[in-house]
């Protein structure tokens, strides 16, 4: 893409709101990764062969665990006894290359020192791209946005002040969402096709089968009934962005919903399809493939988004690297500027800054030595490094490397880090619950009042241990249900022909919604406050099961156990042994060890 009239026409014709071609790309969506890259890529490869399809893109919704070496493991909020190297280091070192272009956001179990090197996003390994604290990029004309971390009210108004070595407080606060990132995302005017968050938008559970969710996760009932489950910040972004798809993870359960937003002016109401997925384990619904139409005239690789980069430039002076509370500017007479939306001129300036080239460069570089199984360093200290990708982008656009700035605070910031915590329970993260020790900017934020017991929440200790008895009881039942009573072949991957969304709680009469998703998304700005209603059963069926939509557009994937299979048999189907504590391995690996 070059500067001049052609560039301007391309930018202003807005591929986000123009025609879509008949062809579509297949996007694999994965829930919590937990470092299981080899298993996820193996599963995608198997599905491609079995179904005769080609997956174009993999989206991972957090807990990616981009651990490069032993020092990185000390920057991840998991108990020491559950810290495992997993397989990312192989992709970081170059031993392996991701077979599918992978885009991910951060969750609450990450090598935080690694991801902090890339506050605006970047490559963590060849073909694996991190979206940053918050980010929007384009792939084949599709706008993909994301917000890393989870919501915690007590840290929401602080700056990104953390840097390694972390103390027990900053080890967790480093992955908590900040209001500056949400403020940036709320400046977006052009429609988003896909958005990712690790924790759920608060209230989304009212737009799907709430009863089925509570049957799977009984401990969520109190939060659901009091509407305190999930992130109020993500709820606000969902109302503003109104993306076609919103993907999440965190709660380790598959849940689908369809939300119709209030119409804006004379435009047709937009609809968001929400999907949360499980983590990569046997008999868990952790992967789903979705067909998304490509845009006409779009490029093949990842591209920067001019509107987003213009917003980053405009809001650069608002960024803070201290733990002191901060509120974004408002139209209340106290601020000289409160509107940071990107103008046409600002977007054109970004294109000029990039010399007319929007393609994201393949400029991955290693900043620390990768793990070497033959030369372990169990006592390696956490690293603190700036990343050349961030340095280059900041120089090009005039941005601040906030990770470098936080580190330059030295001992002064270190002393502040040790005194900013307050008491915080280790069970903070299962429901994105907040603390009541600091006022929230959300008038209805009751996240600090949650008190129900969550046996599957992230208590730091217990997340990594599967409930073995529960799984053993469920495996046979789920397998039989999936194959309608027939015996499930050993290692067979379950791929229902289409996504079936649960019935919502609604008594609203049906409307003419079956063709809404075929309409080009209208351009919009911040929505006015309005009541949002769930869709009725007939509306949902029209959106997700009827109309012109391909019934094979989405496939649910479950990894199954082969413990009952013949250990001597071998075939093309990957046969996975269920892990008994922290990881499961293939039967082939087990035999090699013997």
TrEMBL record:
SMART domains in the record: DBR1
UniProt keyword list: Hydrolase, Iron, Manganese, Metal-binding, mRNA processing, Nucleus, Zinc
One cellular-component annotation, GO: nucleus
Compartments it resides in: Nucleus
Region of interest (Disordered), residue spans: 365-388, 409-594
Keyword Ligase: no
Hydrolase among keywords: yes
Segments forming domain Lariat debranching enzyme C-terminal: 259-403
Any GO BP: mRNA splicing, via spliceosome
Residue spans of biased composition, Acidic residues class: 458-478
Gene Ontology molecular-function annotations: metal ion binding; RNA lariat debranching enzyme activity
Compositional bias segments (type: Polar residues): 443-454
Domain of life: Eukaryota
InterPro entries: Calcineurin-like_PHP, DBR1_C, Dbr1_N, Metallo-depent_PP-like
Main subcellular localisation: nucleus
Cofactor(s) the record lists: Fe(2+); Mn(2+); Zn(2+)
Protein family per UniProt: Belongs to the lariat debranching enzyme family.
Protein name in the entry: Lariat debranching enzyme
Organism: Lates japonicus
């Amino acid at each position: 893409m070059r500067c001049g009239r052609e560039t301007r026409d391309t930018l202003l014709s807005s591929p986000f709101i123009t025609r879509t071609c008949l062809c579509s790309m297949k996007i694999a969506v994965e829930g919590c990764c937990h470092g299981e890259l080899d298993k996820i890529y193996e599963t995608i490869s198997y599905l491609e062969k079995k179904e005769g399809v080609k997956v174009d893109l993999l989206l991972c919704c957090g807990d990616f665990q981009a651990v490069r070496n032993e020092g990185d493991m000390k920057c991840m909020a998991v108990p020491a006894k559950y810290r495992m190297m997993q397989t990312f280091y192989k992709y970081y070192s170059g031993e392996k290359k991701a077979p599918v272009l992978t885009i991910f956001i951060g969750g609450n179990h990450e090598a935080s020192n690694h991801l902090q090197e890339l506050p605006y996003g970047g490559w963590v390994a060849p073909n694996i791209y991190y979206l940053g604290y918050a980010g929007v990029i384009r792939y084949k004309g599709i706008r993909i946005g994301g917000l890393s971390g989870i919501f915690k009210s007590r840290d929401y108004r602080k700056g990104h002040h953390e840097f390694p070595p972390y103390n027990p407080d900053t080890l967790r606060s480093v992955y908590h969402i900040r209001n500056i990132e949400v403020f940036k995302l709320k400046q977006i005017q052009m429609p988003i096709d896909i958005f990712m968050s690790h924790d759920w938008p608060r209230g989304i559970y009212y737009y799907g089968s709430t009863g089925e969710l509570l049957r799977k996760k009984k401990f969520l009932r109190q939060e659901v009934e009091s509407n305190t489950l999930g992130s109020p910040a993500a709820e606000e972004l969902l109302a503003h962005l109104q993306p076609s798809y919103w993907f999440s993870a965190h709660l380790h359960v598959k849940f689908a919903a369809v939300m119709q937003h209030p119409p804006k002016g004379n435009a047709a109401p937009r609809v968001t399809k929400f999907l949360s997925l499980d983590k990569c384990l046997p008999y868990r619904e952790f992967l789903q493939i979705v067909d998304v139409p490509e845009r006409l005239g779009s490029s093949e690789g990842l591209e920067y988004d001019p509107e987003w980069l213009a917003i980053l430039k405009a809001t650069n002076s608002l960024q803070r690297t201290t733990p002191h509370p901060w509120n974004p500017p408002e139209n209340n007479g106290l601020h000289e500027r409160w509107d940071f939306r990107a103008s046409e001129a600002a977007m054109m300036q970004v294109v000029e800054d990039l010399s007319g080239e929007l393609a994201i460069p393949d400029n991955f570089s290693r900043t620390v030595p990768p793990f070497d199984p033959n030369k372990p360093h169990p006592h390696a200290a956490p690293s603190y490094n700036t990343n050349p990708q961030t340095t280059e982008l900041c120089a090009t656009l005039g941005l601040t490397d906030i990770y470098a700035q936080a580190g330059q605070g030295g001992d002064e910031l270190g002393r502040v880090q040790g005194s900013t915590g307050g008491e915080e329970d280790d069970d903070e993260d299962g429901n994105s619950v907040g603390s009541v020790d600091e006022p929230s900017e959300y008038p209805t934020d009751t996240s600090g009042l949650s008190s129900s017991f969550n046996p599957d929440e992230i208590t730091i200790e217990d997340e990594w241990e599967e409930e073995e008895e529960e799984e053993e009881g469920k495996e046979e039942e789920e397998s039989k249900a999936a194959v309608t009573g027939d015996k499930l072949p050993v290692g067979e991957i379950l791929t229902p022909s289409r996504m079936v969304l649960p019935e919502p709680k609604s008594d609203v009469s049906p409307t003419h919604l079956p063709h809404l998703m075929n309409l080009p998304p209208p351009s919009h700005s911040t929505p006015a406050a309005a009541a949002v209603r769930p869709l009725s059963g007939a509306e949902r069926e029209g959106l997700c099961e009827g109309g012109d939509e391909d019934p094979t557009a989405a496939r649910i994937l479950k990894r199954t156990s082969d413990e009952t299979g013949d250990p001597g048999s071998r075939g093309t189907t990957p046969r996975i042994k269920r892990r008994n504590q922290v990881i499961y391995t293939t039967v082939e690996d087990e035999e090699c060890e013997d």
